[in-house]
Amino acid sequence: MRWSRYFLFTEKEEPKEAEAPSHRLLLKAGFIKQASAGIYRLLPPAYRVLKKIENIVRKEMERSGAQELLLTVLNPKELWEETGRWDTYGDELFKLKDRNGREYCLGPTHEEEITDLVRKVLRSYRQLPLILYQIQVKFRDEKRPRFGLIRAREFIMKDAYSFDTDEMSAMISYETMKFAYQRIFNKLRLNVIMAEADVGQIGGSMSHEFIALTDYGEAKVAYCENCGYAANAEIVPLQKPEEEQEEEKPMEKVHTPDVHTIQELAEFLNVPPSKIMKAVLYIVNEKEPILVLIRGDREIDENKLERIIGTDNFRLAKDEEVIKLFGTKKGFIGIFNLPEGIKVLWDNSLYGVKNLVVALNEPDWHYINVNPGRDFQYGDFVDVAQVKENDPCPKCGTPLKVKKGLELGHIFLLGTRYSEPMKAYFTDRDGKEKPIIMGCYGIGISRIISALVEQYHDDKGIKWPTPVAPFELDIILLNTKDEQQEQVAEKLYLEAEEKGIDVIYDDREESAGFKFADADLVGFPYRIIVGRKVKEGKVEVQSRTSGEKWDVEIDKAIDFVKEKIEEDKK
């Protein structure tokens, strides 16, 4: 491909709307263009990356015995009503009607439709086990789409579904997909941690996520370097601590004016945040107040809270709601003089803490040296705190590491979550009808593009790994008016094409500096610089990844690059 004819146009200005490196670089390098909030067009170079990702995924799916099909984007309401998800999936579900008033959704995932297909075809245990998959566009009405392809409303996903006769067979399918995912991410050259995860909206009995480490991921993964435990931070259990062995001091009322945060209160009273009881008021379903009490040095994990209260329809109370319910302002909510009808949840972190600082629902006043048993009684303890660095591993007790990450893959052992309500049965060897045991397995194909850029970039631009690079080689003609240089560049370009290298030839009439800046920005793995050295019978080969440079004879240059590319793909 000649760059002068290719639909690739870089930008020199930094995109103001982009925070994540991948979002900024994909926009600036001309790989994506925004159509609307959370909706992006993939331009030719991004589409080439996408297809290479898909090819890697397809090879591993087929190697695992999965068969590809293509389901519909429009899903009938009736299927989702069978599983109860039409009303419970939430506001992320795009719903619409046809001209006859029949209701549909744009598929965010396809458990219902694949189960409907299978129940109409499969009848006997002889037809199982089976794994079907597709690569297809998905839609989710994200409340806050952000970071480009990382959190989009329209995206491309590979979703696979397994169908088995019993739990043992289903577990074999699950493990087969788990190993396939590990091979896929290895081939994509992504640093990914496999972590235990919550089943969430999909449901089932077991779940694992595959998380790429990046500062702009929305997941947090906690892992233990000693025993190998790894889990999404939202499901890491934090147990009650040992009761503190400390002499109880007399409770005292203290004036605390002009303090608004835990840190300010800690400094004002000269106590550590761990000695402060923090109270956070939530409003559930727009009507029910819930007060969550937690130690001052901990934060609430709202994913844990969602599982405890059974809904995601909750929010922090507004200032006027705090005043109406407690007669005080935020920062001064406490357990004393609680109004009736307030449900209270105690985080495990507060168990056994002595000589606490506690608000008393009176502006600008706190109690100090408050002790459980003597001054107040505990209520229901729950685990609602965010896990943080150095919390104990739930398996071996070693301090945990906690990193941000981007979920790229998620697998679920569904059991009969969908087959039973949708009556997807098979007949076993004894002639009895039984529900099919299912699993589902997703990979965010378009999100992987962003994950690759997150993990492979520098201050100049993208550094694509060779297996997924849109082009493997960039031939740069420095002087388009130099006949000898042009002849050499043309010769190398044609030879590279003949030898099966994905090559782009930068034949544009631009300055050398302009071309080098573009080459760094778009990040093709190798480049051949056709410049003054052609008079010596040589060209310069450069690696975008390592920065290495080699002077190579013109006749050997393409073979030299091809060998490097093949080494990278091993």
Which helices and strands, and how do they pair?
Blueprint: H1 21-28, E1 32-36, E2 39-42, H2 44-63, E3 67-68, E4 74-76, H3 77-83, H4 85-88, E5 95-97, E6 103-106, H5 111-119, E7 130-139, E8 154-164, H6 167-187, E9 192-196, E10 206-213, E11 219-223, E12 230-232, E13 252-255, H7 262-269, E14 277-284, E15 288-295, H8 302-309, E16 314-316, H9 319-326, E17 343-347, E18 356-359, E19 365-370, E20 380-382, E21 401-415, E22 425-427, E23 433-435, E24 437-444, H10 445-455, E25 473-477, H11 483-498, E26 503-506, H12 512-522, E27 526-530, E28 538-543, E29 549-553, H13 557-569
Parallel strand pairs: 3-7, 15-17, 17-20, 25-26, 25-27
Antiparallel strand pairs: 1-2, 4-6, 5-6, 7-8, 8-24, 9-10, 10-21, 11-12, 11-21, 13-19, 14-15, 14-16, 18-19, 21-24, 22-23, 27-28, 28-29
Helix pairs in contact: 1-10, 2-6, 2-10
